[in-house]
């Protein structure tokens, strides 16, 4: 799965985290691993211009999704799940920062939420009607909850491997843990 990110917002964000949560959401939604996705982070002015041009709504917004025409916003329960260019997700960190403060969490968390939200829009989910909103927001919450658990488990495993390697005196290719201690060399696990 190819996920490209372009940060033109002037705000430092954890781009790796956005790619990871997008990949996690696409995997959960059983999107082909050959699919391509682009994520752009833009300024308030750029987002305002896009919002007015494409949605005919004034002012900036937090996230916009632009599905590619050939995919047509395909949900996983739709026929023909062939590989395709999914489309673009556009995020506005400055706008999202205000939302994050209001919600009482970090900007990175808000941007992950908006990334999943954008992925779901690309796959054809919407929230214009109450039933659609319940479905989309419920799915969004489940994906984010599962991602959070998986990310914590991965961090825990990484810390445990590092602690085990230090305890055993195992190091990478650069040399033993302490000079002359006879520690065995081991290639990465």
**Mean pLDDT across residues:** 86
CA-to-CA gap between the ends?
23 Å
Q: CATH homologous superfamily of the domain at 2-125 - what is it?
A: Metalloproteases ("zincins"), catalytic domain
Quaternary structure type: single chain
Helix content: 40-55%
Overall shape: it is globular
Spatially, the strands of the biggest sheet line up as 1-2-4-3
By CATH reckoning, the class of the domain at 2-125 would read Alpha Beta
The H/E string reads EHEHEEHHH
Q: Describe the biggest sheet?
A: 4 strands, mixed
Describe, in plain words, how this protein is organized in 3D:
With 189 residues, the protein is α/β, with parallel strands linked by helices. It has a domain at 2-125: Metalloproteases ("zincins"), catalytic domain (Collagenase (Catalytic Domain), 3-Layer(aba) Sandwich), CATH 3.40.390. 49% of the residues lie in helices and 13% in strands. It is built from five helices and four strands. The chain has helices at 15-28, 44-55, 93-103, 107-122, 130-168; strands at residues 2-7, 36-41, 63-67, 85-91. Helix 1 runs parallel beside helix 4 (107-122) and helix 4 crosses helix 5.
What is this entry, summarized?
The chain has 189 residues and is α/β, with parallel strands linked by helices.
Question: What descriptors fit this protein?
Answer:
189 residues; alpha/beta; Collagenase (Catalytic Domain); 4-stranded mixed sheet; globular
Ordered list of secondary-structure elements with their pairings:
Layout: E1 2-7, H1 15-28, E2 36-41, H2 44-55, E3 63-67, E4 85-91, H3 93-103, H4 107-122, H5 130-168
Parallel strand pairs: 1-2, 2-4
Antiparallel strand pairs: 3-4
Helix pairs in contact: 1-4, 3-4, 4-5
């Amino acid at each position: 799965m190819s996920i490209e990110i372009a940060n033109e917002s002037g705000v430092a964000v954890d781009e790796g985290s956005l790619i990871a949560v997008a990949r996690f959401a696409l995997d959960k939604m059983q999107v082909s691993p050959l699919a391509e996705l682009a994520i752009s982070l833009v300024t308030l002015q750029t987002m305002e211009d896009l919002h007015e041009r494409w949605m005919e709504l004034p002012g900036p917004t937090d996230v916009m999704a632009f599905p590619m025409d050939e995919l047509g916003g395909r949900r996983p329960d739709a026929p023909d799940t062939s590989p395709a260019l999914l489309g673009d997700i556009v995020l506005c960190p400055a706008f999202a920062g205000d939302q994050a403060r209001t919600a009482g969490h970090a900007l990175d968390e808000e941007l992950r939420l908006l990334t999943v939200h954008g992925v779901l829009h690309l796959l054809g989910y919407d929230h214009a009607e109450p039933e659609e909103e319940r479905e989309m927001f419920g799915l969004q919450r489940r994906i984010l909850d599962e991602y959070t658990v998986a990310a914590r488990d991965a961090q825990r495993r990484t810390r445990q491997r590092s602690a085990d390697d230090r305890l055993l005196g195992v190091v990478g290719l650069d040399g033993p843990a302490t000079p002359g201690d006879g520690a065995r060399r081991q290639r990465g696990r």
